[in-house]
Amino acid sequence: REAIRLNPNLVEAQRSLADAAMRLGDMNTLQDAATQMIRLQPRMPDGYALRALSNINRQHYPEAEQDIDKAIEIAPQNAFGYVQMGNLRLVQKQYSDAAKAYQDALDRNANSTDALRGLASAYIAEKQVDKAVDAARVQIGKSPSNSSFYDLLGALLFHSKGDLSGAEAAFEKSVGLDKQNSDALIQLCQVQAAKGETDQAIATGEQSLKENPRQPNLDVLMGNLYQSKSDWKSAEDAYQKALAINSQDPAASVELARVMLSK
After folding, report:
1. Cα separation, 120 vs 150, whole angstroms
2. Residues 111-156: pLDDT tens digits?
């Protein structure tokens, strides 16, 4: 914001502000930054696609569709516009059209995590779990080094198929490709715990925290695992670590209170 105050025409700052707003869920700021990107670069698709995302989240669907059409018109080989079209059709519950749009995005960018996640969501919404799993495997074949693809496959196998061994293998592959993929790490621990391998889950989590210590969600999970073993001191330490990183973490606060009452 300070960079933009000093130079409103600094498109890199507008893009960075839009990215930050997107991660924070601040759709009004995203709308404003995207509009400025369009003003500065009217022949680039990113501003239109980002503004469309803002409008989708605010349920301004006709405006979103106009921006998506413009993004695709400007850059028909860019996946970003098709991803947003998929997002729009998904919230409109037009699942077949959503799947087609996400597939169009993957045809243009085989490495698009947003497109594959959206495609899987469209299939899941239609209760076509096997198609979602197959889509993930097909895309892994095209981009075998994408940690997020294995993470998504693991989540599908874990939560939708109940295939714990398959999910564990997928999460292990995801973590092997990217040791900082905290989502895959957390779900790997959860799968191991679901298999009754609590000690292995704790070992996996502790090793991850040694390599990447600032993972409050993993600290909370570790606290849960220690609680399941009635190891109150280790559980308390884990929740305290999570709160040291994020003092407002509600899960860590509630579980810490429970542990202190159980000691």
Report:
1. 13
2. 999 999 999 999 999 999 999 999 999 999 999 999 999 999 999 9
Query: Which tens digits make up the pLDDT trace of 201-213?
Result: 999 999 999 888 8
Six-digit token string for 159: 């939560």
Question: Which DSSP string corresponds to 209-259?
Answer: HHHS---HHHHHHHHHHHHHTT-HHHHHHHHHHHHHH-TT-HHHHHHHHHH
pTM score, two decimals? Answer: 0.89
C-alpha 179/C-alpha 188 separation (Å) is 12
Residue 90 burial (CB < 10 Å; 0-12/13-18/19+)?
Answer: buried
Instruction: Output phi, psi for 31, to 5 deg.
Output: -60, -45
Backbone dihedral angles phi then psi of residue 22, each to the nearest 5 degrees: -65, -45
